[in-house]
Design a protein that fits this description.
The chain is about 50% helix and about 15% strand. By secondary structure, it is an alpha/beta fold.
Length: about 260
């Protein structure tokens, strides 16, 4: 359904997300006085839920994986006449996401490698667009969870792949399929994709907390997990590891730090 901007303001917007995208939509909606509804899978961290509620978003829980939440959001958008914002295939999202990579390259123009997690793929897409435009020699490495490797498999097979499941502690990486827009951007531009286990992600979360005082959620720490995994390959190079989320439940972090 096509909805004009004034109708969106009156009826509200709806999207699906596992965290960061939801907060950006909720924040924007609050600025413009638009009602925002976010559909999320069950078992999303309490920290993310509280942040969204603080921004005034209505949260609907549906399904156990992102794809189930996304499909339900699309259904609700049709039923309620709301403006649906696709969390991955919406081109207008990408310039905003890419600005973080532009800022990093402005600060470190001689960077050799950028490592960025891949859930839906907008962050890694922003990385390749900016990095390859600034200097084609900059390598961009994506990271996926071993239990949610849909994009990795798609990249390897050069076609869109759906695994049908996503089994990882990293909510932001828990996608069960690859999506058209990021796939078209990354297929011939990204230099490598590394798979990391949940155990490797937890170790990265602990390292960031203990050594740097950074509270990173599992998906946010995935880039460090990958950097550690390929440390022999990148030793001596200038590397940017994108820490892309800090929405971790304090209880979960405490339990990992105590081990």
């Amino acid at each position: 359904m096509s909805i004009k901007a004034d109708e969106a303001s009156r009826r509200g917007v709806i999207t699906a997300s596992m965290g960061n995208h939801a907060q950006s939509i909720a924040c924007s909606a609050s600025i413009y006085g638009v009602k925002a509804t976010v559909v999320m899978p069950h078992n999303i961290s309490r920290t993310k839920v509280e942040a969204l509620r603080d921004l005034g978003a209505e949260i609907i829980f549906h399904g156990s994986i992102f794809e189930e939440a996304r499909e339900y959001a699309e259904k609700l958008a049709e039923e309620r006449g709301m403006l649906y914002i696709h969390p991955i295939n919406e081109p207008l999202l990408y310039p905003g996401v890419a600005t973080m990579h532009l800022e990093n390259i402005e600060d470190l123009p001689d960077v050799d490698i950028i490592i960025n997690p891949i859930g839906g793929g907008s962050g890694a897409s922003g990385a390749v667009i900016v990095a390859k435009s600034a200097d084609p020699s900059i390598k961009v490495i994506g990271v996926q969870a071993e239990g949610a490797p849909s994009f990795y498999l798609s990249w390897k097979q050069k076609k869109l792949v759906s695994t049908g499941s996503a089994n990882t502690i990293a909510e932001g990486l828990a996608t069960a399929r690859a999506y058209e827009l990021p796939f078209s951007i990354l297929i011939d531009r990204i230099d490598d994709i590394v798979l990391v286990s949940d155990e490797e992600i937890i170790r990265a979360v602990k390292l960031l907390a203990e050594l740097e005082g950074i509270m990173a959620e599992p998906a946010g720490a995935a880039s460090l997990a990958a950097a550690y995994k390929i440390r022999d390959r990148i030793r001596g190079l200038k590397v940017i590891a994108m820490i892309t989320g800090g929405n971790i439940d304090p209880e979960k972090l405490s339990s990992w730090l105590a081990k």
